[in-house]
Task: structure prediction
Amino acid sequence: MNLKDINAVGNLLSKPQQIVIVPHKNADGDAIGSTLALWHYLKNMGQQVHIIAPNDYPKFLKWMPGHEQILNFEKENSQAKALIEQATLIFTLDFNHLGRIGQMESALQESQATFVMIDHHQAPSDYAQYMYSDVTMSSTCEMIYNFIEFLGDDDKITPEMAICMYTGIMTDTGSFKYSSTTSRTHKVVAALIDKGAENTRAHNLVYDTNTPSRLHLLGCALKNLVILEEYHTAYISLSQDELETYNYQKGDTEGFVNYGLTLHGIYFAVIFIENREEGIVKISFRSEGEFSVNEFARNHFNGGGHTNASGGRSDTSLQETIAYFVSLLKEYKAELNP
Result:
């Protein structure tokens, strides 16, 4: 965010605003952590502010301070639409294209509010008047810390804000193991702990929440693991029937895709998850090294994200999607050989 934009947003926040904060659909720890941290910050400034999530999000995130204030656009549609219509300022966090918010897209497109985007994904669209976009950042939560610091208010970070930001950084960096974790990330995390983020508590509440059904689902996913040694690739698939057999709950497959990368010699890992209700196959891509799953997802699966972590979707059947994916690997054989 350049100095001109910082000053402009600061001037907007120096006056009373009707503010809405929006994370992406199927929000993860970074999306929920960043929106809640910003919500606390703006609320403490005296602003009228609401968070509207496009849909529900995983139960293991429903402990962060303020989470009960998040409106679900799908379930609280009338109230959410009224707040969007009344908004003078809308922050969109952890996404950079309105296509990432599902049914909310038309409501935001019709809004006359000023938009501020804060995001770390590649290829941002241009819907926001003010944009803080940086693909080198570990997480949007790290960017929220920077944003508050830019405005000269880092001394106003409360323990509630700190643990929300800490949780988002922790989840989006894979507990600080991904290459996007920089020395600056660790400095921000250290500052958040000093400001009251209970790091052990955050880790326990996010990661130590297994249920028997989730562990059985993980066993099913690992049983379905396919290794393509020629392409240094591994993929997992889960059908709708398998999800239902193990009583799937939103968020249960979080992290499953990473198991492929724990195998020696595997640099590209994928999970395919059938969603019969939406008529699609949801896909998560992970890689190690320089192979860009962002470009792969954008080129072939209507998706995108980061160089080493991305998502996509397919409108064909699970079997057809996997067959198409495998057929593509021949084009990338050279890139997948280190």
Notes: The chain has a mean pLDDT of 96. The CA atoms of residues 171 and 252 lie 15 Å apart. The chain has two domains: 3-207, 212-332.
